[in-house]
Amino acid sequence: MTQRSLFDDTDTNALTAVRIHPDFSSWQQRARQLLMDEVPPQRVLWQPDNTQKRATASSSVTAIRVPKSFLTQASAASCYRSDDRWALLYQLLWRLTHGEKHLMQLAGDRHVIQLRNYAKAVSRDVHKMKAFVRFRAVDIADGDQRYIAWFEPDHYIVEYAAGFFQRRFANMCWSILTPDCCAHWEGSGEVWFSEGADKASAPADDAVEDTWRCYYRSIFNPARVKIQAMMAEMPQKYWKNLPESRLIPELIRDADKRVAIMASDAKSSERLHCGPRPAAPAQVLNEAIQQSESGSIQQLALAAHNCRNCSLWQPATQTVFGEGPVPARIMLIGEQPGDNEDLAGKPFVGPAGELLNRALAAAGLRRQELYITNTVKHFKFRAKGRRRLHEPPQEEEINACAPWLAAEIEQVQPSIIICLGVTAAQAQLGTYVRVTRDRGKLFALQGRHYLVTVHPAYLLRRGESPQEFQRFVADLQVAAGQLNSLDIR
Ligand code: URA
């Protein structure tokens, strides 16, 4: 689309050419200045130019109040691959500040629609990037490794999406190469960016490629093969960069056979609201385990998928192993996965997890910097109709899972372990601990600190009283404070 198509009343005789580095902050800075000078949109010719300097924070320009929904969508739309985006943003900004302050509520307005469409397209592209970036390990100097991925986004999203990869892969040094821009992370500091690259600069294969394929094979659910939906979610243009894509034809071909096997295996769980049990053929897992780094957390997680130490694996959908950075300074231990966690295969993703996230944020702790796990790795439940009701784990189930937790602690090496609720507290510190009496206290044991507090599910059961929530936050703050004092020493 060209610059002109947005506006019907462009007067080409009186255009002001505005050259900006094509990023949101640079646009914001120039747009504020233009507004102060009362330059209307039809007089501005936006000229994105990569050779221009990026805007730096400036205090000399007055802040302009606009609705948050505009800012959020505008910052996404600023990544849309079309040069007319800058004019669109200025047109909207002008209207918002010239008598149409409720403009964003006019869902049928053509500029509002266009902004929404641009922002949506960008957010879909970011979603695909998060799902389909695959890092490959490359050996660099002194036996270190750098992880490099190649990705071809539809829009200019690399800078916009980089924060996600920084948080998600905080412990690795990585580069994401794309044709427009490359992002690099050195394990600390800031993500930095360089110009676009060729696909040939990125590695095409690596030693852990087969592990990705094992993983994909094990999470593939043959009973849910919907080829059209699959193609929509994972368009073929991404396939060429995905190690697992070679498996797709084979998995689709064998799907019917595997469904028949699953059906004959799982008659008893049919009535329940159980998730599809990921196929975990021992051979595939064993190969993955052998290929992952000996003693690594990935190796543990893969091995735990085969765990038969107690009978809880049978009705559960899957093992829910811990997740988070390794090493991590704080480890949180819950009781056992719930219904949502059992289906998702991740700890604390249901209502208790949501409450926990809020409390952690209020205590100044970042979930993505913590390692989160459970005392017991399988969901224990009692069936009531199609519902699965939580049942507390028994001592023998806690003991059966203890080696996994001990191995996680060994890998993660946390300075502080936060025990959420009585199961975690007593499994770690012994049965003399009482959560109501001992919550918020730090215990020193074998060179690390333990903090006991309530389980977030307890707060949910009590209707989330604000006082109880504050007490929970205060307990978590004790851990945050301890961490700070360890830093000072
Ligand atoms: N409760 C827990 O103890 N762990 C989870 O992962 C979810 C709920």
Short description:
It is built from 19 helices and 14 strands.
Summed up, the helix count is 19
Q: Examine the secondary-structure arrangement and name the CATH architecture of the largest domain.
A: 3-Layer(aba) Sandwich
Across the major sheet, the strand order is 3-4-5-6-7
CA distance, first residue to last residue: 59 Å
- Class from helix and strand fractions: alpha/beta
Helical residues, percent: 40-55%
CATH topology of the largest domain, anyone? Uracil-DNA Glycosylase, subunit E
The unreliable regions are: 1-10, 266-271
Largest sheet: 5 strands, mixed
Query: Cofactors and ligands present?
Result: uracil
pLDDT averaged over residues: 85
Name of the top-level CATH class of the largest domain: Alpha Beta
Question: Beta-strand level of the residues, as a percent range?
Answer: 5-15%
Q: Which word captures the global form?
A: globular
Over the alpha carbons, how many angstroms does the gyration radius reach?
26 Å
Please provide the count of β strands.
14
Count of separate structural domains? 5
Query: What is the fourth-level CATH superfamily of the largest domain?
Result: Uracil-DNA glycosylase-like domain
